């Protein structure tokens, strides 16, 4: 398979190094499985190499990668393979107990709330940027963030 040559200022290694954590964390936040997140990560960057898209800015590139990551996770859920399998529990090791508790609490949220919380707090995207990426009205994003915070507060309140 021949891969199209990339522009000199757009080296694939640099793009992967710069955005690998973002793509992987978002994939993992959406699917809660290390192996599925690995598959999504690989698919996102394969699509990037194959399509060789042109971007107006780095923010546009970041938004494209986020959107493709979300679409790949949706595609995984709709696949016949995913619907007919039972997931194994991933034993993700955390250095601090607080990180583990937060991860487990986040994993219990519905996917739409997990996604907006992750993009807002972990990726530092504004409500408007999240709205553009997810193609959802800003008011809906604000509502989802409010509901997700309330759910997290209720769950975490019960632990202390």
Question: What is the element layout, followed by pairings?
Answer:
Elements: H1 12-31, H2 34-51, H3 58-78, H4 80-83, H5 97-107, H6 111-122, H7 127-134, H8 138-159
Characteristic terms for this protein:
160 residues; mainly alpha; 72% helix; disordered N terminus
Short summary of the structure?
The protein is mainly alpha-helical and 160 residues long. It has helices spanning 12-31, 34-51, 58-78, 80-83, 97-107, 111-122, 127-134, 138-159. The radius of gyration is 17 Å and the shape is globular.
Describe the structure.
By secondary structure, the chain is an all-alpha fold. The chain is 72% helix and 0% strand. The chain has eight helices and no strands. Helix 1 packs across helix 3 and helix 7 packs across helix 8. The longest helix is centred in the last third of the chain and has 22 residues. The N and C termini lie far apart (56 Å). The N terminus is likely disordered.
* Sheet having the most strands: none
Number of E-state strands: 0
- Note the gap between the termini: 56 Å
Task: Tell me the series of helices and strands, N- to C-terminal.
Answer: HHHHHHHH
Uncertain parts: 1-9
User: What is the tally of helical segments?
Assistant: 8
Structural class: mainly alpha
Assess the beta-strand content as a share of residues. under 5%
Arithmetic mean pLDDT: 81
């Amino acid at each position: 398979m021949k891969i199209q040559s990339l522009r000199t200022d757009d080296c694939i290694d640099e793009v992967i190094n710069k955005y690998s954590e973002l793509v992987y964390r978002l994939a993992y936040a959406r699917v809660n499985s290390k192996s599925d997140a690995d598959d999504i990560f690989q698919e996102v960057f394969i699509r990037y190499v194959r399509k060789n898209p042109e971007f107006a800015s780095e923010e546009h590139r970041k938004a494209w990668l986020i959107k493709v990551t979300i679409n790949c996770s949706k595609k995984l859920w709709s696949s016949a393979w995913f619907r007919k399998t039972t997931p194994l529990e991933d034993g993700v090791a955390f250095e601090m107990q607080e990180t583990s508790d937060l991860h487990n609490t986040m994993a219990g949220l519905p996917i739409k709330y997990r996604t907006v919380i992750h993009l807002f707090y972990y990726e530092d995207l504004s409500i408007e940027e999240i709205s553009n990426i997810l193609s959802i009205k800003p008011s809906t994003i604000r509502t989802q963030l409010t509901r997700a915070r309330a759910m997290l507060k209720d769950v975490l309140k019960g632990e202390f």
